[in-house]
């Protein structure tokens, strides 16, 4: 059976993202300074609604348009992987009414928006646990994965019923099961082994981790993948975020000095003191 040709940016069937309403364009960053993988915590929906005297669900509804806006902006600036924290393993603690709404909402957002995502060449992926998740939500996410599996412009990972600790725990459980069955040598298990059993093994490490809403924590999101991510915290509540916030974070990322544990002895290299940046 012949594999269907991948739909990249140059494919004539791929639609260019709608421009920003203001006419704003992405900053002209060299490709090597654009983060390959951006992870975003979709935070502040409830507070946005509370500040306006609205039910919390109205903030979530407003966030739907932001998902598409961020996908468009990511494509325009050249981000290849965008991961969105849509529903965490801890969100089950919320009121039954809000959980019920979020389950149906996540399902319906994918159903309503998969056409446009597919037209833009976006490959939809799902990361998260299946237990407890509504069957209709799982079905919609899996159908979107199958439909868009040949798209190559960008990967959009919807993290639904996701937790960083849960992901690592699930990977460790599967490795333990395979080791008990004699299919894996426990003495050869290392970081690369565990990475192969994460929810999306093809996913590269997170380069840029963005959290809007003014909070400054990672909240159990992408703990493994974001080990060396650059963190950018923004004060804007998620329903008010647009692609310009993403671009601003990408500009901040481009200015960071990423060493991954390494260091440069600038004095020994004969560089002037003002050439050094902060760091060890």
Your description of this structure?
- With 280 residues, this protein is an alpha/beta fold.
- It is built from 7 helices and 6 strands, in the order βααβαβαβααββα.
- The chain has helices spanning 45-51, 56-77, 96-119, 135-147, 164-180, 191-195, 243-255; strands spanning 37-41, 81-88, 122-127, 154-162, 208-211, 230-233.
- A 6-stranded parallel sheet has the order 3-4-2-1-5-6, sandwiched between helices.
- α4 (135-147) links the parallel β3 and β4.
- α1 packs across α2 (56-77), α2 (56-77) packs across α7 (243-255) and α3 (96-119) packs parallel to α4 (135-147).
- The longest helix is centred in the middle third of the chain and has 24 residues, at 96-119.
Short structural summary:
The protein has helices spanning 45-51, 56-77, 96-119, 135-147, 164-180, 191-195, 243-255; strands at 37-41, 81-88, 122-127, 154-162, 208-211, 230-233.
Descriptive key words:
single chain, 280 residues, alpha/beta, 6-stranded parallel β-sheet, 7 helices, 6 strands, 36% helix, 13% strand, disordered C terminus
List the helices and strands and how they pair.
Blueprint: E1 37-41, H1 45-51, H2 56-77, E2 81-88, H3 96-119, E3 122-127, H4 135-147, E4 154-162, H5 164-180, H6 191-195, E5 208-211, E6 230-233, H7 243-255
Parallel strand pairs: 1-2, 1-5, 2-4, 3-4, 5-6
Helix pairs in contact: 1-2, 2-3, 2-7, 3-4
């Amino acid at each position: 059976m012949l594999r269907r040709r991948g739909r990249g940016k140059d494919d004539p069937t791929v639609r260019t993202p709608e421009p920003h309403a203001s006419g704003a364009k992405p900053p002209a960053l060299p490709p090597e300074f654009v983060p390959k993988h951006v992870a975003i915590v979709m935070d502040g929906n409830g507070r946005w609604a509370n500040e306006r005297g609205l039910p919390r669900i109205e903030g979530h509804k407003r966030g739907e348009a932001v998902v598409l806006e961020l996908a468009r902006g990511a494509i325009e600036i050249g981000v290849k992987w965008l991961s969105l924290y849509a529903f965490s393993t801890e969100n089950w603690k919320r009121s039954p009414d809000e959980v019920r709404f979020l389950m149906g909402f996540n399902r319906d957002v994918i159903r309503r928006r998969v056409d446009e995502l597919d037209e833009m060449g976006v490959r939809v992926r799902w990361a998260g646990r299946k237990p407890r998740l509504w069957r209709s939500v799982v079905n919609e996410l899996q159908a979107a994965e199958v439909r868009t599996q040949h798209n190559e412009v960008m990967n959009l990972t919807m993290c639904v019923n996701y937790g960083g600790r849960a992901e690592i725990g699930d990977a460790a459980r599967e490795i333990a099961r395979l080791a008990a069955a004699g299919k894996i040598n426990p003495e050869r298990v290392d970081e690369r082994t565990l990475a192969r059993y994460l929810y999306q093994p093809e996913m590269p490490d997170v380069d840029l981790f963005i959290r809007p809403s003014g909070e400054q924590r990672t909240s159990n999101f992408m703990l493994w993948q974001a080990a060396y991510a650059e963190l950018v915290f923004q004060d804007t509540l998620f329903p008010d975020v647009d692609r310009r916030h993403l671009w601003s974070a990408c500009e901040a990322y481009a200015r960071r000095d990423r060493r991954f544990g390494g260091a440069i002895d600038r004095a020994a290299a004969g560089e002037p003191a003002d050439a050094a940046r902060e760091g060890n």
